[in-house]
Give the backbone structure.
Amino acid sequence: MKPLATLSVLTIAALSLTACADDPKSSSGGLTVSASDSTCEVSKTDLKAGPSTFKVTNKGSKVTEFYVYADGDRIMGEVENVGPGLTRNLVVDLPKGTYEGACKPGMVGDGIRQKITVTGEAAKKLSDSQQLKAAATSYERYVNSQTVALIAKTEEFVTAVKEGDVTEAKRLYPIARTYWERIEPVAEKFGDLDPLTDGREADAKAEKRDFTGWHRIEKQLWVDNNTEGMAPYADDLLANVKKIVALGKDAPLTALELAQGSKGLLDEVATSKITGEEDEFSHTDLWDFKANIEGSEAAIAALRPVLEKQDPALVKELDAKFKALDDDLDQYQDDSGDWTFYDKLTKAQVKRLSDLVAAVSEPISRVAAVVAESA
Amino acid sequence: MSEQNEITSGLSRRKLIGAAGIGALAVGAGGGYAVGRQSDEPTAGVPDPDAKPVPFEGAHQAGIVTPAQDRLYFVTLDMTSEERVDLISLLKDWTEASRQMTQGNDVGKFGAVSGSPFAPPEDTGEALGLPPSGLTITVGFGRSLFVDAKGKARFGLEGKLPERLKDLPAFSGDDLDPALCDGDLAIQACANDPQVAVHAVRNLVRIAFGRASVRYSQMGFGRTSSTSSAQVTARNMLGFKDGTANIKVEDNKDVEDFVWVPKEDGPDWLVGGSYLVSRKINMRIEIWDREPLEGQENIIGRAKGSGGPLSGGDEFAKIDFKKKNDRGAPVIDMKSHVRLAHPDFNKGAKLLRRGYNFVDGSDGLGQLSAGLFFIAYQRDPEKQFVQVQHSLAGSQNDLLNEYIVHVGSGLFACPPGVGRKGYWGEGLFA
Ligand SMILES: [Cu+2]
């Protein structure tokens, strides 16, 4: 499990990009701002609604700034510290209305201003993109395939626990969790249910609630080597897993959420898996580790058409970095599919894995922006 | 983006330093108490000395003879990629980012706050609003960058390994922790503000993800050697002035003779560069602090207050090693630190030292984990650092060895500087 910060901020209706990639297609052409110590010439002051790129060139001798203000000097966008002779881009998404563009030679005062009028439709909505809808649908299919197996394997696990079959329960624990960990961003959308199913003992204690879910049973199995008193926890786990799956179906992830989710899964690896603290009793972290990575790769696969179109270099980089990570991980899986217990890894091996995860995480952190720009 | 200048300029974090300074400093002028002491004319703002960046471009890398800044952040990394293209692109990216950061700018096209709201910022942002603070970034290449453990060339760098980039020999008394030694690449970031130095390294490390990974890092403060005669001699954690006899940037001849790799030394790609030796030296602070003043001064060979040699005179007085006391013993102990480290007893060897104090918290027994992160630049490690260290090392030599232990070590070849367009180590790939 992981904290719930990342997904909640992403409920986006309209896009407001302040900056784009090298050549923002949707902008109103090549807008130039020519600034000197006493003048400020904007090449075009009638703009269409949507993102516009102002190319600000400082031809004066003082450092300057360029602002776009709405009523009441509300700043819509700014580019600061444009030194003499320099050019810098400002991309600002302007809805219909009137604005003022202002150069501030010497970076002081109200600036040299002129009116800018924006007409036409509001900026395009991200949710309108057919391509992004297709990506979300594709990921939904993946989630569905995983949830069927998740429920089936969790049922088997729960049965073994209730029958007191410790060996079988231990065998099934990491396997059932694999399906869970692959689609963790779905679970994490439901803030109240995720801790109940996947919370850690220390967190339960801190939050003054009963320690429940996967890790409660894990502790009983590995520390006490029995299943005593676990039947209610097992039933409860299955019920919550089913609830999450049902809720997830009703509110599938958007393309942007799944872009964030692909990053979230790797963050999960980088924080709780690398430290071996997720499965602290069973040391089956590498099952989860691999599953998180597979989930992340699946999210990227769903977004692939969008990414290929927007930023093929990023796709190449992601492919290469994922491959390096997968290749390194391979050595820890035996022919029967079992993974090395995490406490058997050397410090050097963990560092290597950590480096490889970081190597994928950096490019993956740029995916959401590329998705946002595709609208 | 098309224009080169946009890429290299980045976003400046030096905001309004001049203007704000004038307003603030003019307050108080003309007040009653100031009569006779201050003119009625508001004085022009004193320019913030940290607002002026250290030039990045030049024949040599900045951060070697640059007057020592107050803070250090040092890191070594290992390549996690074996691809030559990755090494080249990393050096290019580092050069570009360092060019921006040393001039007080954010990293990247959009910096810390002007990029897409959906992307992580290109610059980590903790230096926003801070002046360049004298930031210099200096890189070095370890032996392991050129050859692997079996002596096989890496990154297609056959024939590029400098002859002098050997592993340092073992010194008597060393207690080296491999986790604090060596590395394929080293970055020395110095600045007058620790936040600026940390920001620089953090961004460079981030840029390296997927290509290189950190081996260890070290923070330092209170420059322990002065590299310019304009600077007072700083003190180390033992309370003594350190670096009185250091090479100063003003000593052109010493700098030429002892710091820069000349053409005749080679290899070509390193001409104008230098060799960096790093040593992490732990000090047994509590034991030292119980040593009587006379004992401390005898161990060092200098007076604690003035820094002058025990043979007499002020800090910069010539040391008289022959002078005897009334019992007929040398005034400067034969095993004192100053004598054993002196060029006269080391075949004339001099080093340009740029060490920094460090405190890594306490050790759990209530003792300071503190000492000296020693850095020295030279054109020939064997004749310079190794020569001096052999004189000092071992329980039979430097009296100071009872109070210090070397726990980390490294030797790096630092390439020459770059011009407006080049990148560090470019000559390696020619
Ligand atoms: Cu989890």
